[in-house]
Design a protein that fits this description.
The chain has 263 residues and is of the alpha/beta class. It folds into two domains: 151 residues, 3-Layer(aba) Sandwich (D-Maltodextrin-Binding Protein, domain 2); 87 residues, D-Maltodextrin-Binding Protein, domain 2. The chain is built from ten helices and eleven strands. The strands form two sheets. Strands 1, 2, 3, 4, 5 and 11 form a six-stranded mixed beta sheet that branches. α4 packs across α6 and α8 packs across α9. The chain is globular, with a radius of gyration of 18 Å.
């Protein structure tokens, strides 16, 4: 049986909810964890494939991407944002979301390149109110409930900031498999799941909005108009640029090729 790891956020539901539907006949087990834990599970071998943070693929050469699938966006992403009590160029301390890998690194790049600052960073459980008690700003991922912002804070959408800097989409996560477990059958199964999800975006948005007490319109716009589940050449270009910037800022130790599985 194939073991699949997934983030528990709304943006991943179109990729995995088919596995919980009556239409799924594939013998799989889906386990859910935050991005930082998913990376550990892939390294441990407790899952065969996961929609893991793209940052982890830069650090783990044993991973290979499943072709044509990702969690990405071109411009504002709504669910990866920095909340600051100060103007952005005055930030001195930032609380990073312990759940995150990719967005934590992306924020370091953006603040340095756009504002010329290197704040003091520390990791914190994703509670924005607690974060802001002792830090100038806090980074939160995956929480659409904060879409309207917080009183007396500046909101900085990392997806929009990346696009403003590069004019490229940003790939937050992608199906990444262990090289010793990847197969054509795995690829076909994940693509079939995504095909089902793409046909049920509005239904999934309404379902999860009800479960999580979100406005249906917000959840629908997020899945239908914001998220992009492809992995095109343009997205790969953005991915490679992000990898290079991570290397230039010392966030990763080496540049290794980003490979996709070729059946």
């Amino acid at each position: 049986m194939m073991r699949i790891g997934s983030v528990p956020y709304l943006n991943a539901k179109p990729m995995v909810d088919w596995f919980h539907s009556a239409e799924c006949e594939s013998p799989v087990e889906v386990v859910y964890a935050v991005p930082s834990r998913l990376a550990e599970m892939l390294r441990e071998g407790s899952v065969d494939v996961a929609n893991v943070s793209i940052f982890e693929t830069f650090q783990n050469p044993d991973l290979i991407l499943i072709p044509d699938l990702s969690i990405s966006a071109c411009g504002a992403v709504k669910s990866v944002r920095l909340f600051s009590k100060k103007p952005l160029h005055e930030i001195e301390s930032v609380a990073l979301d312990t759940s995150s890998l990719t967005s934590n690194a992306l924020l370091r790049i953006l603040l340095k390149e756009q504002f010329g600052i290197i704040p003091c960073y520390s990791h914190h459980i994703p509670d924005i109110y607690a974060m802001l008690e002792n830090h100038d700003a806090g980074l939160i991922i995956g929480d659409l409930k904060l879409f309207e912002g917080l009183p007396d804070t500046v909101v900085y959408d990392l997806g929009q900031a990346w696009y403003d800097l590069t004019e490229l989409p940003f790939v937050y996560a992608a199906w990444s498999a262990r090289r010793d477990r990847v197969s054509l059958e795995m690829c076909e199964t994940l693509h079939r799941a995504m095909g089902w999800g793409s046909q049920h975006l509005e239904t999934l948005a309404a379902h999860w909005a009800g479960r999580w007490n979100l406005p249906v319109e917000l959840a629908t716009d997020y899945l239908v108009n914001v998220m992009d589940y492809r992995l095109t050449e343009c997205q790969i270009e953005g991915l490679r640029l992000y990898q290079r910037k991570c290397f230039e800022q010392g966030l990763i130790g080496e540049l290794h090729p980003i490979e996709t599985f070729q059946p």
